[in-house]
C-alpha cells in the first residue's frame, strides 16, 4: 500500500462519502509530513501549499483555517486508533472472545493496535504531538473513549477481578495502567526511539509481564 492509498483509506472516516480530490489528498499528505517534522505551531499554510504543489488559496477552499486542516488529520486517526470498537471486526476479535487470562486480552489489543500504529504512523505521530496543545482534540478523545470503549473494557476488568486474577484496584486504575503501558511502548518504539533495533515480540511479552506483575492479585 503506497502513501496515497493508506492516506485515502484513513481519511475515508472523516467524510461520509469518503471522496477526496487529488489536490485535497496532496494537501493532507503535505500537512501530515510537515506537522510531524516541525509541529503544528511552527508550520505555515504557505509551507504546506509549497510542498503539496498547490496555491495557498486552494488550502483555504477546503479548510477554513489551519486548525481545520489539523482536525481533518486527527479525526480519522482518533476514530480508528481509539475507537476501533466501532468496527464490528475489531469488537468481535477483542470483546466477544472468551479469554482464559487478562494478559491474553491485553496481548490481543496490543497486536491489533500495533498493526494500526505501524500502518498509519505519520498521521498518528501528528496526533500524539498535538493532543497536549489542543483542548478540542483532548475532548474528542475523552468522548470517544467513554462512549465506545470504557464500558466494554470495564466488563472485562470486572470479570477477571471476580475470578481473583486481578487485584481489587479501582477499575479505572486497571484500565489506566493497561492503556498507558501499551501507549507508552508505542510512543517509545515509534516516536522517541524509532531507529533502535527493537525485538518487538520480545518487548511486548516483557511489557505485558511487567504489567501483570503489578496487576495480579497476591496469591493468584
Automatic annotation (TrEMBL):
Swiss-Prot/TrEMBL GO biological process terms: regulation of DNA-templated transcription
Limits of the HTH tetR-type domain: 21-81
InterPro entries per the UniProt record, alphabetical: Homeodomain-like_sf, HTH-type_TetR-like_transc_reg, HTH_TetR, Tet_transcr_reg_TetR-rel_C_sf
Keyword DNA-binding on entry: yes
UniProt key word DNA-binding: yes
Pfam families hit by this protein: TetR_N
SUPFAM superfamilies tied to this protein: Homeodomain-like, Tetracyclin repressor-like, C-terminal domain
Swiss-Prot/TrEMBL keywords: DNA-binding
A molecular function (GO) term: DNA binding
Gene3D superfamilies for the chain: Tetracycline Repressor, domain 2
DNA-binding region location: 44-63
UniProt protein name: Bacterial regulatory s, tetR family protein
Amino acid at each position: 500500500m503506497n502513501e496515497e492509498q493508506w492516506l485515502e483509506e484513513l481519511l475515508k472516516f472523516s467524510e461520509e462519502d469518503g471522496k477526496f480530490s487529488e489536490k485535497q489528498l496532496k494537501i493532507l499528505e503535505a500537512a501530515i509530513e510537515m506537522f510531524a517534522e516541525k509541529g503544528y505551531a511552527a508550520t505555515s499554510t504557505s509551507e504546506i501549499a509549497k510542498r503539496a504543489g498547490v496555491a495557498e488559496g486552494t488550502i483555504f477552499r477546503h479548510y477554513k483555517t489551519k486548525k481545520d486542516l489539523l482536525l481533518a488529520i486527527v479525526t480519522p486517526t482518533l476514530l480508528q486508533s481509539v475507537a476501533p470498537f466501532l468496527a464490528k471486526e475489531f469488537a468481535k476479535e477483542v470483546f466477544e472472545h472468551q479469554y482464559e487470562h487478562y494478559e491474553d486480552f491485553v496481548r490481543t489489543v496490543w497486536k491489533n493496535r500495533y498493526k494500526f500504529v505501524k500502518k498509519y504512523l505519520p498521521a498518528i505521530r501528528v496526533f500524539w504531538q498535538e493532543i497536549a496543545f489542543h483542548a478540542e482534540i483532548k475532548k474528542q478523545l475523552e468522548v470517544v473513549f467513554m462512549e465506545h470503549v470504557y464500558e466494554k473494557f470495564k466488563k472485562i476488568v470486572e470479570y477477571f477481578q471476580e475470578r481473583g486474577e486481578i487485584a481489587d484496584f479501582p477499575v479505572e486504575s486497571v484500565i489506566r495502567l493497561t492503556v498507558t503501558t501499551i501507549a507508552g511502548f508505542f510512543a517509545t518504539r515509534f516516536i522517541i526511539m524509532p531507529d533502535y533495533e527493537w525485538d518487538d515480540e520480545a518487548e511486548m511479552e516483557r511489557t505485558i509481564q511487567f504489567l501483570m506483575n503489578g496487576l495480579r492479585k497476591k496469591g493468584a
